[in-house]
Amino acid sequence: MNGEGEDASKVIHVKFLTKLDYPFKVPVTSVVIPSSVTRLGLSSIVNSLLTLEKPEPFDFLIDGELIRMSLEQFLNAKGISAERTLEIEYIRAVAPRKEEKPSLHDDWVSAVDSSSPRFVLTGCYDGLGRIWSSPGSCTHILEGHTGAISSIAFANSEGAEGVTVATASKDRTLRLFKVDPAESGDSTTRVGAYKILCGHKASVASVAAQKYGSKVCSGSWDCTINVWDTNESTSELSVPGKKRKGNNQAEEPQLEGEAETTLVGHTQCVSSVVWPEHDVIYSCSWDHSVRRWDVETGKDSLNLYSGKALNTVDVGGEGSALVAAGGSDPILRVWDPRKPGTSAPVFQFASHSSWISACKWHTSSWFHLLSASYDGKIMLWDLRTAWPLSIIETHKDKVLCADWWKGDSVVSGGADSNLRISSGISIS
Amino acid sequence: MTKKSEGANEDQVKEPKRKIVPSKSQKEAKEVKSSEEEEDLLLDSGTDSDYDGDSLSGSLNSDDFDSEDDDDSHRETQDDEGSDEVVDSENGEEEDGSDDEGSEQREVAEESDSSEDEVAPRNTVGDVPLEWYKDEKHIGYDITGKKITKKEKQDKLDSFLATMDDSKNWRKVYDEYNDEEVELTKEESKLIRRMLKGEAPHADFDPYAPYVDWFKWDDAIHPLSSAPEPKRRFIPSKWEAKKVVKLVRAIRKGLIKFDKPEEEPNVYLLWGDDSASDQKSKHLTYIPPPKLKLPGHEESYNPSLEYIPSEEEKASYELMYEEDRPKFIPKRFTSLRSIPAYENALKESFDRCLDLYLCPRVRKKRINIDPESLKPKLPSRKDLRPYPNSCYLEYKGHTGPVTSISTELSGQWIASGSTDGSVRIWEVETGRCLKVWQFDEAVKCVAWNPLPDFPILAVAMGVDLFFLNTELGTDEEQQRIEELLRLDNLPELDEAAAAIAKWLPDEKYRGIKIRHFKNLSYIDWHPRGDYLSAVMPGGETRGVVIHQLSAHSTKRLPIKMRGLPVCTLFHPNHRGIFIIATKKYVRVYNLHKNGEPIKKLETGLREISSMAIHPGGDNLVVGSKEGKMCWFDMDLSSKPYKILKNHPKDITNVGFHRSYPLFASCSEDSTAYVFHGKVYSDLNENPLIVPLEILRGHSSKGGVLDCKFHPRQPWLFTAGGDSVIKLYCH
After folding, report:
1. Least enclosed by CB within 10 Å: which of A28, A384, B265, B645?
2. Is residue B303 part of a domain?
3. Residues A136 and A53 in one domain
4. Is residue A108 within 8 Å of residue A124, measured between CB atoms?
5. Chain B, nearest residue to A414 by Cα
6. What whole-number distance in Å separates Cα of residue B651 and Cα of residue B282?
7. Residue B474 and residue A172: Cβ atoms within 8 Å?
8. Are residues A391 and A419 in the same domain?
9. CA gyration radius, chain B
């Protein structure tokens, strides 16, 4: 190995380090390699050191930065001396290794939520919500909406008697469903809503649920954000008249709920809401702003201006404080609201070629996030490099929604009516 | 000569005796004044060798000072001594210049000089013309009355010789009066020279001596006059005031002029360069014809040998091209006689004449202007963001050219109509087709109702106008719409309207159908959403009708139109104002005042195709079929404020943005142009129009048929003949 390296004009002494366990650990010895090797070369070197049965792609970090060019260029760009022994950390490459079987829907898949490792929730343009326990096997169908579902979320994924699911639809309502995961047999069960949340005057664009709480919030085309209670009893009392009417029309008891709080401030359609903390809601809107709301007071405490109509927002990353948002242009922007006095984005990722429809932070990693775009691509990003880690091009049409699942898979739905799951993504 | 001199001598001898006393007294007085000085002077003068002219000087001076009486006595004394001296000299001691007497003589002379006194005239005839004595033997009488005889006249030759011999002759002056020759001293000649120069006669007189101010200014206790200050010193002068008034009047009347009239130079170069003066005066850029080349040595009849080409050179000339060959080959001739006639003489002079006569000798004025500098200074495009520039979304589904699109007020949906007979509603956000209505005829025009809570769609196709329920409203809104669109009993229209339109229920889509007598070309909603104007290519009052949806009625306009209407607009702010565009003119009417015409805009276009009004209501954009677009500022003028010629083909539609300062035009050349069109609230400021972007993307087949701005975002929808709708975002 060492002898081979000396053939090249310029050689570098490197040491490979890793936080990975056996079988991906190489002995900590200094190796001489030519400086012209790229990431692929480094990966093959490590693979040959490891002598694995199946070659494994790796990514390499020098001083916390991913290598995306030849080693020599990288060192020149960063001004690192090639004289001393270089310590290169390697991690398993973040790329899907396996493509699951697509789950075909009747219409466009507009919403997906896979925050629970047990299920994947999908909302579809045919007005039905679906619960998938594994790729290709639909356990429940959530019915009742008269318009296309625009957003779906777990309201309570760990409930004792079942899972509560909230759906938002273009028929101006939200519906709450209770699903018992145990009862799912071979056939799919159809579930009706136990509660209908009415109050929006226009299509509901997005729904998000409070973690460890009983509330959901929704953003709508009527420029408002409503906060709703998912609890059964209180809502029953609050609207007895409507309840009766619901009883008459449908066979199973259906409740109607009204909004607890309405957060007013956006001047255009609220396209996405997230509820990352107990009483903090982040929302983005077509009025080009991202706002942070305090649920208790109903005031917005933060207002980030992006200049473009925004479609999606998510909060995560370091300290769960970074705000990522994408919208009517191909640039994914990440803000750090903790930075005082500036509203300029700290990161901008611009590899897409069309509107961004979804972006999600990885639940456990501080660095990773995904974005889905109307150009049919899903890109996995690492804050440590400006290039996408990998591009998933499984969809044939616009990707409308995407999410992480189980920490190692990407679930996405699109205008090709398919739910696709790319798994085997190793994020340390 | 000797006799006369003796006689004279006698006289002289007698004279001093009489006048001794006064002279002595004078002398003493003088000596008291400045005895020492005079001694010095005497000593000085003693050095002078030849000293004889005192008497002359005395006589000269006597002439000068005749009128002065004061010095008379003094003069007399001088005369005495001077005459003594003269007598002496004439007695023949002249040549010797005897020293012993000289001292005395000089003393006298000096005295006379210092006192500027003269010798009294020996001749006492007085101031009579001397001609009277011309023929006499004497020249006059002396003081005792004896005749003074003339001196013997010298022979001319002798006198000439004498003068030539005498080196001092130039200093001698003949005194006719006393009949004697006087020789000037050196001092006197200097004095005369100085007087001639205009200087002070005495060399030691200093004309620029410092002034001694004898008056004591400061320590005078008492004023020179004890009179009190007069009052006139304290009041403004009456006479000055009068003078000023006079001057002011004169200035007013123009009698006094301050600026001098410009003097025209009355001198000019008569024989100056003609061409140059022409150029200056007439600003003509005249070029004088070039002068003929003068003949050189080689054209001589006998040029030097070096001019004569050798045989090889001549041969090489033959090989050259005609135009490269030298015109003239020098040759030697033994004499001028042997030179033959120049064969080209006639031709060359003819050419020269032609050149003088025909060649235009005027410098062409070629203005060299950078075309960039002619462009108006416009703000940079970057500063005018946001505006639509790139296409991200396409709405596909139509199978024929999309003729018309319309945006819903919230910006969530757009509707489109196509020649394939379908009307579609799209979700803007995702590009999904939400609803399709299929008709048999090609859709001409679609229009959303402008009310946000009244989502119905008006669709024009063929002779029919449909009101379609989009079912996008809330339940209550839906109920209202359904009620409104239910046509239980057919409305009774008055006769005039019935001839044009007929209301019918539409069973298929549960809407209303209005059947017109002609094919519809354009529809437009009133901003309140109740009235809708429909345009048909009909003349006079039949071209435009207004339908009222709530009352299910149709009205004809009380307007007689000239020409076929093309499109109509309701004013966005003033309810009753209605704008109709015919093929060449745009007319504005007030419907509240029974269709009173307000304005007529002269577009100057061949055929208007579309128009759009600024949301402010004062500015109008008109697109034409020749690719021109006119911006009218209706407050400003009935003529276009700006004409934009950008499209090579017909403009199909123009549109304003509701809130951003943007407007756009689309054309059959498959492009859409986006402009910045800022209207200022300050009426003095003209609208600012800046072209921003050319949006390409539609295939060249069919062009772009319609363009509409998103109501809230700076985005533009374009409907193409290639059956695709594109959304251009900022």
Report:
1. B265
2. yes
3. no
4. yes
5. B430
6. 50
7. yes
8. yes
9. 63
Distance between B532 CA and the closest CA of chain A, angstroms:
26
Q: Which residues of A touch B430 (CB under 8 A)?
A: 108, 110, 357, 398, 400, 415
Q: Is B323 found in the same domain as B174?
A: no
Q: Is residue B322 one of the residues assigned to a domain?
A: yes
The ipTM (two decimal places) reads 0.84
- Residue A44, domain extent: 9-92
pLDDT tens column, A251-303: 455 677 788 888 888 888 899 999 888 888 999 999 888 998 888 888 888 88
Tokens for B400, please give them. Answer: 């024929």
Please report the beta strands in B553-650, taking only residues with DSSP state E, as ranges in sequence order: 553-556, 565-570, 577-582, 585-590, 596-602, 608-613, 619-624, 628-633, 642-645
Of B97, B99, B112, B96, the residue nearest B61 (C-alpha): B112
Here the tokens at position B268 are 């000019």
In a domain, B42, yes or no: yes
What distance in Å separates the CA atoms of residue A327 and residue A310, rounded to the nearest whole number? Answer: 4
Number of domains making up chain A? 2
- Whether A299 and A191 share a structural domain: yes
Backbone angles phi, psi at B278, to 5 degrees: -60, -45
Are residues A161 and A301 located together in one domain of the fold? yes
Exposed, middle or buried by CB within 10 Å (0-12, 13-18, 19+), for A249?
exposed
User: Is B654 part of a structural domain of the chain?
Assistant: no
Stated length of chain A: 428
What is the spatial distance between Cα B209 and Cα B206, in angstroms, rounded to a whole number? 6
Residue A153 lies in a domain: yes
B411/A268 touch (CB, cutoff 8 Å), yes or no: yes
Determine which helix (DSSP H) or strand (DSSP E) holds A13, and give its type and residue range: strand A11-17
Residues 6+ apart with CB under 8 A from A42: A33, A58, A60, A67, A71, A88, A90
For A399, the closest chain B residue by CA position comes to B430
pLDDT in tens, B442-485: 899 999 988 888 888 899 988 888 888 888 877 788 888 888 88
The one-letter code for the residue type at B27 is K
Q: Which residues of B touch A (CB under 8 A)?
A: 386, 392-393, 410-412, 429-432, 474, 712-713, 715, 729-730
Residue B112's domain spans which residues?
2-197
